[in-house]
From TrEMBL, chain A:
Natural source organism: Anaerocolumna aminovalerica
Protein name per UniProt: Spermidine/putrescine transport system substrate-binding protein
UniProt subcellular location: Periplasm
A biological process from GO: polyamine transport
MF terms in GO: polyamine binding
TrEMBL record, chain B:
InterPro entries xref list: MetI-like (IPR000515), MetI-like_sf (IPR035906)
The protein, known as: Spermidine/putrescine transport system permease protein
Transmembrane segments: 12-31, 55-78, 90-109, 140-162, 183-204, 210-228, 240-262
Keywords tagged on the record: Cell membrane, Membrane, Transmembrane, Transmembrane helix, Transport
Entry-linked Pfam families: BPD_transp_1
KW Transport (keyword) present: yes
GO BP annotations, alphabetical order: transmembrane transport
Keyword Cell membrane: yes
Length: 359, 272
């Protein structure tokens, strides 16, 4: 009886604590902002500074890719004040009426953002009504100068078999494992728009990628960094922000945005329709646009900042004038953002991509 | 005894929330379209050439890795059993120890071992042996599956073997059976339940994996798990993803039913 009783009491206590624990998650009175951002995409120090200066507590969650974030906001299963999706996703969310307009009276620091990027952002957010650029970058080729002697300036370096064989890296290419990026590269190389919805053009792009398949060692996203730094592969497709990091680790690596053009992506802060506290969200966005804060974030995550005042403050001249972090306008003119193409076309893209891989 | 039944209540609630309800949701999504109407189209997509190839490749690779696991695990379990260690929690510890580390980390470690400039090839080069091109091939995936799931084969077989009474084996010997006869007619049939649960526990996760093929296959080898993952993560199509998962579940159920049938027959034999 004694032992049995004890067990029952323990079990009861366990259930009780669980129930109390859950009930304890009720909202308290301290002002709180709910932030939803990419992983490793902010200097943690910045969050603490925000809390200290405004007295608003920050509840910070992160996501791995846009597609993980989207259903959370769409179903409203968790409410966030401020979120940081990419261009095409912002466009999709605007279209589906998931966002609310930002009141720029509360965001005076917007003046620090370079108008060039605000203009680029208009491609997906006309009038800059819903989003404020946070980070941006390009997609390009990273190659190892000690392993490939030829100069590389074209996507052809990833598609031209004779060129690859002549330089001895056929079968060693690291291609990007992302539907839009991979097909986008092929489309641009063929001279089409990277937002093409034309089935014939997509078919051509698919055939090009299918041809490329035997030349590819692996389809990767994050792993490209380690493989390139370690010299496992001589060439690969990479995001510009990662390129700066890999160059630091291995000076033989060179990053180019091919002459045919490429993708420029912009991640921006947006406020969901169901945000519990819009006022805090605008405070947060304004804080992120402050030059010292933007600089701190840039130094921590190494992705390019659209904040011209922050760029002026960069002490390291090499970085300040880095053509990777801040390519000149002639390169940027050749780069386009991704647009949201609608469900049907996205499915078509995925099917084409799967056909490429099921060789 | 009756009064304690309610103690299982938290577990039943747990199961309902995290197993039964999600399963029902998968079924619901699997047989509906985005507008909510009933359809079998999601299930029929398995016949699509790309998906069919992926499923077939998954089945092939998981059968191969299950067989390799069995061939490696059975003798090992026999040897461990013959050691008659007093403290057999030690054995369990040895095989569970690597599992204390995260599955993902261990798979990434294998990537570093198998790479062309990786640990294995560096050693081979040092010994002036020909290097191997393993990474980003189906063999690398089989490697990863065998490594990750081997303990799930060893432990059930070992658990069954230690339960076989020495008296049974001695009786067989007394009646004139030699070592091989004892093994074939006594030990093997009696250990059949362990083999069956081992096979299930290796085959099922191998069939559904998408992490191993991404990391060790360089995403060049597309398995059915990857196809399903893409439906959910890349184009946010839960309906097709769930439909394909349902088909996969059917395959698993069929393979388990076949095994269960053999299991019963084997038990029948062991009684004889």
């Amino acid at each position: 009886m004694g032992v049995k009783m004890k067990r029952i009491v323990i079990a009861l206590l366990l259930v009780l604590t669980a129930v109390v624990g859950l009930a304890g998650c009720k909202k308290s009175n301290t002002p709180t902002i709910y932030v939803y951002n990419w992983g490793e995409y902010i200097d943690p120090e910045v969050i603490k500074m925000f809390e200290k200066e405004t007295g608003i507590k920050v509840k910070y969650d992160d996501f791995v890719q846009n597609e993980d974030m989207y259903p959370v906001i769409q179903t409203g299963s968790a409410k966030y004040d401020v979120v940081c999706p990419s261009d095409y996703m912002i466009q999709k969310m605007i279209k589906e009426d998931l966002l609310q307009e930002i009141n720029y009276d509360n965001v005076p620091n917007i003046s620090n953002i370079d108008p060039t990027y605000l203009k680029s952002a208009e491609e997906f957010d006309p009038g800059n009504k819903y989003s404020v650029p946070y980070c941006w970058g390009t997609v390009g080729i990273l190659y190892n100068k000690s392993m490939i002697k030829a100069d590389i300036d074209s996507w052809g370096a990833l598609f031209d078999k004779d060129f690859m064989k002549a330089n001895g890296y056929d079968g060693k290419v690291l291609m990007i494992d992302s539907v839009r990026d991979a097909l986008g590269i092929a489309l641009v190389y063929l001279g089409y728009s990277l937002n093409s919805t034309n089935p014939a053009e997509l078919e051509e792009a698919k055939n090009l990628l299918k041809d490329q398949f035997p030349m590819v060692d692996a389809y990767v996203v994050d792993q490209v960094r380690d493989k390139m730094i370690g010299g496992e592969n001589p060439i690969g497709v990479i995001y510009s922000g990662e390129a700066i990091y890999t160059q630091r680790e291995n000076p033989d690596l060179e990053y180019v945005v091919p002459k045919e053009g490429s993708n420029i992506w912009i991640d921006g802060w947006v406020i969901p329709k169901n945000a519990p506290n819009k006022e805090y969200a605008e405070k947060w966005i304004d804080f992120m646009c402050r030059p010292d804060i933007a600089l701190k974030n840039f130094e921590y995550i190494t992705y390019s900042t659209p904040n011209s005042a922050a760029r002026e403050m960069i002490e390291d001249v090499d970085i300040k004038n880095s053509t990777i972090a801040f390519p000149d306008s002639s390169i940027l003119e050749r780069c386009k953002t991704f647009h949201y193409l609608g469900e049907e076309v996205e499915t078509l893209y995925l099917n084409k991509w799967n056909e490429v891989k099921s060789n | 005894m009756k009064s304690r039944k309610w103690l299982s209540f938290p577990y039943i609630i747990w199961m309902a929330i995290f197993i039964i309800i999600p399963l029902l949701m998968v079924i619901y999504y699997g047989i509906t379209t985005k507008s909510g109407t009933f359809t079998f189209d999601n299930l029929a997509l398995i016949a699509d050439p790309i998906n069919r190839t992926a499923l077939w490749l998954s089945i092939k690779l998981s059968v191969v890795s299950t067989l390799i696991c069995l061939v490696l695990a059975y003798p090992l379990a026999l040897i461990l059993n013959n050691m008659k260690l007093k403290n057999n929690s030690f054995i369990v510890l040895i095989f569970i120890l690597p599992m204390w580390m995260n599955f993902l980390l261990r798979t990434i470690a294998w990537q570093n071992i198998l790479e062309n400039t990786g640990v294995l090839n560096t050693i081979l080069k040092f010994l002036h042996l020909p290097t191997l091109e393993l990474i980003n091939t189906p063999s690398a995936i089989v490697f990863g599956m065998v490594y990750n799931f081997l303990p799930f084969m060893i432990l059930p077989i070992y658990n069954v073997l230690i339960k076989i009474s020495d008296d049974t084996i001695n009786a067989a010997r007394d009646l004139g059976a030699n070592y091989f006869q004892t093994f074939l007619k006594i030990i093997l049939p009696l250990s059949f339940p362990g083999i069956i649960s081992g096979i299930t526990m290796v085959f099922v996760p191998s069939l559904t994996t998408f992490v191993i093929s991404t990391i060790l296959g360089g995403s060049k080898v597309v398995l059915i798990g990857n196809v399903i993952e893409q439906q959910f993560k890349m184009i946010n199509n839960w309906h097709t993803g769930s439909g394909l998962s349902l088909v996969l579940m059917v395959f698993i159920l069929i393979s388990m039913a076949i095994l269960a049938k053999y299991d019963k027959e084997a038990e029948g034999k062991s009684v004889w």
